[in-house]
Design a protein that fits this description.
With about 180 residues, the chain is an alpha+beta fold. It contains six helices and ten strands, in the order H-E-H-H-E-E-E-E-H-E-H-E-H-E-E-E. The structure holds ligand HQG.
């Protein structure tokens, strides 16, 4: 892994899961103070400055992070395990969404449905290929089709993160199909 990628993984950890790994706190909307984050990361023996942080945010392939208007605060767009409210937009999803997972989880998913597990939401993709990539992170991949239209009809809420990930609290097995 390149050193900037390693830094980005650490920034994800801090902004989504464990701010105290850099000795910082997030506010209720998930924001970290940019100067505190830079100072905190340097305090772990890693090196970062504002230019490098801006570059990592700008070049992130999944657009994981966002600054506020004045670039004084930064947060992760989605993927949190800690309870922050990143002011997600409630949106009507496409009729079908996809979830990539590993074959070893399928038995449990078929009976219990898709759960957020350690995160705040179940993560869904609008296209098959993205879901396949997500599945590959966990092992032998499988892509599950989610009947988002049916869920909406039955009153479920969906949110679209700033970086295009569809999120929902839970998917009952009745809305899942595998082909
Ligand atoms: C599985 C990445 C057993 C679920 C990606 C998944 C994504 C169950 C795993 C983002 C289950 C949780 C999130 C059940 C769900 N029984 N297993 N009932 N319900 N699971 O990493 O969706 O690169 O927390 O299928 O692109 O894989 O980090 O979620 O396999 O957007 O930015 O439990 O992370 O983005 O795994 O990935 P995760 P995910 P980043």
């Amino acid at each position: 892994m390149k050193s900037n990628d390693r830094l980005s993984v650490f920034i994800s950890l801090v902004l989504r899961h464990q701010p105290d790994a850099a000795g910082i706190t997030l506010d209720e909307h998930g924001w970290a103070d940019v100067n505190e984050l830079i100072h905190g990361i340097n305090g772990t023996g890693r090196f970062i400055d504002l230019d490098l942080l801006e570059k990592i945010v700008r070049e992130d392939k999944k657009n994981r992070y966002g600054f506020d208007e004045g670039h004084t605060r930064i947060r992760a767009n989605q993927g949190h395990s800690i309870a922050v409210d990143v002011e997600l937009k409630k949106m009507l999803p496409p009729d079908v969404l996809y979830h990539g997972t590993a074959t070893r989880f399928m038995e449990s998913i078929k009976t219990k449905g898709l759960k957020p597990m350690s995160r705040l939401y179940v993560h869904l993709s609008k296209d098959y290929d993205t879901a396949l990539k997500v599945g590959k992170r966990h092992g032998e991949p499988v892509v599950i089709k989610v009947d988002a239209a049916g869920m909406c009809r039955d009153g479920a809420d969906f949110y679209l993160s700033e970086n295009g990930v569809w999120l929902t609290k839970y998917v009952d097995p009745g809305y899942l199909s595998i082909n």
